[in-house]
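Researcher: Let's do a round of design. I'm pasting the structure tokens now; please hold your answer until I've finished.
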């Protein structure tokens, strides 16, 4: 399974109303200092992954993002895919989403 998708790929999935779950896995400090998020994204603390990962559905596509699509996203995707979760991350993270014109809302 692919590990990532582009911001434009995610826009297409959301526009087609695909059954996609979007998760914000920015570190707590990054999440708290940014007033924006992707609409309908749920924030989950990446440091508590072992606690929340078991509750994720295995039959849905899950797209995660951190600030820049780096170590946090990669680590979370690796761990989720190892558990059988269909997880991918946004290439370039939330910054790429915003610069590509992706919709954001206030938290």
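Researcher: That's everything. Go ahead.
Model: Designed sequence:
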């Amino acid at each position: 399974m692919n590990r990532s998708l582009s911001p434009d790929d995610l826009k297409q999935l959301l526009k087609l109303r695909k059954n996609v779950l979007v998760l914000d896995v920015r570190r707590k400090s990054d999440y708290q200092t940014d007033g924006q998020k992707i609409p309908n994204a749920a924030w989950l603390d990446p440091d508590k992954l072992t606690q929340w990962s078991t509750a994720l559905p295995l039959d849905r596509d899950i797209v995660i993002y951190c600030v820049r699509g780096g170590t946090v996203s990669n680590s979370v995707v690796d761990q989720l895919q190892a558990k059988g979760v269909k997880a991918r991350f946004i290439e370039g993270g939330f910054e790429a989403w915003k610069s590509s014109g992706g919709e954001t809302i206030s938290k």
